[in-house]
Design goal:
By secondary structure, this protein is α+β, with helices and mostly antiparallel strands. It contains six helices and seven strands, in the order αβββαββααββαα. The longest helix is centred in the N-terminal third of the chain and has 43 residues.
Length: 207
């Protein structure tokens, strides 16, 4: 009886070790994939939530609180992982950034009636926005409008400009549930990970 119990306990221990090994393998695979997954998400989506710190010139009551605004963007001009964002100099966001240039941009996968966005990937880009000069603006304007035709009237008449989001740090969250994985992404890896690199996902796992 004692031997049977011991064999059973050893079998359970071996199974637990094997499951732990599989979990570590899965986490390592997701960590390796995360720079590519983040770049694909940034490339695919078109709207971000830009957060800045409220300037004292805008409000004494909530100065230094985070403030979020929706903005149109594209990462197709060409894809670099540092998006081109459309903003107006009259927006509260720009007044905030005049005092504190640091900001973050949340980009998330859009959900539908069948699945909640909380189960889907999202990425947060930390950095600074820089106004494109006239030469840069001329180079990317048509590309931006291909992604956002509705932006034509704003860019031409309403004081909107294009800005480059210079990324300093990246945090990726794969979503709630069994595929949950979240971590900081190494910035050089993020920049090198081209979103069209399908070969990366076709390579066999490294053991």
């Amino acid at each position: 009886m004692a031997n049977s119990t011991m064999r059973f306990l050893l079998s359970v221990a071996a199974l637990c070790l094997h499951l732990r090994f599989l979990m570590v393998e899965a986490l390592n695979a997701r960590a390796a994939d995360s720079p590519y997954s983040a770049r694909q998400l940034v490339l695919k989506q078109k709207i971000l939530h830009l957060s800045s710190i409220v300037s004292q010139s805008m409000s004494q009551d909530v100065a230094k609180y985070p403030f979020s605004a929706i903005a149109l963007y594209t990462d197709e001009c060409p894809s670099s992982g540092s998006p081109i964002v459309m903003l107006s100099h009259t927006q509260m966001t720009m007044h905030n950034l005049a005092d504190n240039k640091h900001c973050s941009a949340l980009i998330r996968t859009e959900g539908d009636d069948n699945i909640s966005p909380v189960f889907l990937p999202r990425v947060t880009l930390f950095g600074r926005v820089e106004l494109l000069d006239d030469k840069e603006f001329s180079k990317v304007k048509s590309c931006f409008l291909n992604a956002h035709p509705e932006a034509q009237r704003w860019l031409d008449f309403h004081g909107y400009h294009l800005y480059h989001l210079q990324v300093d740090a990246v945090y990726y969250d794969a979503g709630f549930g069994e595929r949950h994985f979240e971590a900081w992404i190494d910035l050089p890896q993020y920049r090198r990970a081209h979103p069209y690199d399908l070969e990366h996902f076709l390579r066999p796992p490294q053991h």
